[in-house]
Design goal:
The protein is built from seven helices and no strands. The protein is an all-alpha fold. The N and C termini lie far apart (47 Å).
Length: 171
Amino acid sequence: MKTPVDTQFIQHINENIGIAHKVCRIYFEDTDERADMLQEMMYQLWKSYPGFDGRSKFSTWMYQVCLNTALGWRRKHKQTQDERISLRHYGIAEQGPDQLEESIQQLFRAIGTLSSLNKAIVLLYLDEMSYEEIAAITGLTRSNVSVRLVRIKKELEEQLKKNNVTNYVNS
């Protein structure tokens, strides 16, 4: 039998599930790792839900939990990362995505080269969070978020220019 807390939690998660998917996509390239991490995030959200007091928006709290889960896992497993077997290991050509999808993949690869904190800032920025919300989630000041975003955009733009990718950073 579902309690009102269970129903409320499920409703919040269903309304904001995209947050967990975005965090997974930014921090984990492998599809299986993303699925495992998504499951771990749901577990951590459920476990932490009694501590959600409503002082911030649910989405802000969910970002904090998901980012902390992803970053904690990355720190814990950084030394044991192995290269995953992919089709290229077998010499099988992967099907080429269309140009837009390839550009998006290159953008995600460029974001993947950033530090963990900068990845989080970009993720929140791309999700159209305000500087104040980004600061609340990351623990930085609003002005620090602003400065970091300018530097991050410049770094991403340089990386994408090297790869001849259309400029999606400033849009």
